[in-house]
Amino acid sequence: MFNILKPRHKARSVQIFTREGIPNVTILGLPHSYWNDTYHLLLTMPWPGFLGLTACFYLVTNLIFAALYLSLPDGIANAESGSFIDMFSFSVQTMATIGYGAMYPKSPIAHALVTLEVWIGLLGIAMVTSLMFTRFARPTARIMFSRYAVIVPYEGVPTLMFRAANQRANQILEAQVSVAILRLETTTDGHTMRRFYDLKLARSRSPVFALTWTVMHTIDESSPLWGMSVESLVNDNDLTIIVTMTGIDETLSQTIHARHAYLARDILWNQRFVDMVLPLPGGRRAIDYHRFHEVVPW
Hints:
The protein has 298 residues and is an alpha+beta fold. It is 26% helix and 33% strand.
């Protein structure tokens, strides 16, 4: 008889389409270990963790070789007998191929250990260097999304709107945005399913995205939001609006992407965004990003 109650692997929680950083989905039945995908872990872990892990690996490796050198009777010339500090210092010099010349191996076993440590040091330096370069060179987007999405009449039709802004001083070429609604629905057969519904946008593509972009979706008869009231939207805890944006960074000439999610409580009815464009003397204009998230009653 199959035991379906006892999980065969450790459960883990993941963050999906939430902005607060609180895991909202628990995964059961899949093998989970941070070391099953070491390369991905080393690329995605925070910088303090990455630097701390490499420092620990460097320290532990030198401690191991220092202990091995210490076990060799008179294996290292000019090193104080029984001094762990001297052996650790010699290990650091050997791994980094510094070679001050004050201490050097004398016995064949010591030479073999030095050869092994130099080889491990070369491999370690190559791997850490490649990981550091990959982490620095990985293209990222600095796109800011408005804190809220609003539903307000536009040209007499209710329209869903939110803002996006490029926080860098360059341009994003061939920028494209897609918006979808994620819902939990129950079919006529009683099955609960997660379904995505694409939202048709007034403009889903911009040849150049440099400053701000107000994304708009008209709520008409063809819209998945058609017929929803303020109460039904607020009480729908399973509704999420998912935004994804892609484009080409003109500096790196590489594709970058960003995503954001609006929960039902993040959608404000009969509110409009404050105008960010301010007139300046001489006919010039300024964009005030302090007003990026501000809304006022319509």
